[in-house]
Amino acid sequence: MEVALAAVSGRWTTLILRELMHGPRSFGQLRVALPTLSAKVLSERLTKLVRHDLVECRRQKGFPSQVVYRLTTAGQLLRPLLIELYRTGDALLRQSRRLPD
Hints:
Distance between the termini: 34 Å
CATH superfamily: Winged helix-like DNA-binding domain superfamily/Winged helix DNA-binding domain
Organism: Plantactinospora alkalitolerans
Pfam families: HxlR
Keywords: DNA-binding, Transcription, Transcription regulation
Largest sheet: 3 strands, antiparallel
Number of strands: 3
Order of helices and strands: HHEHHEEHH
Protein name: Helix-turn-helix transcriptional regulator
Structural class: alpha+beta
InterPro entries: HTH_HxlR, WH-like_DNA-bd_sf, WH_DNA-bd_sf
Number of helices: 6
């Protein structure tokens, strides 16, 4: 369990993984999808995910060349965990809205 939680730790990491669950994305596409995330933090999180073999980075041919990020096989294994984390977070949020202050 600790390995899985460590893989998704860090602010923004789960949101980046969520975007990549929909398919390969360029850095620019990720920036558009996560507009409040700075380029610096996005770059740092992607570097960490690549280093942990959860995301692969491929440079596409052409001019200008484009870097595309996609989940690796190991990254795909996180899909059920992420889905359940989002479901649980949503349920907790709804529960907290029903509680009196």
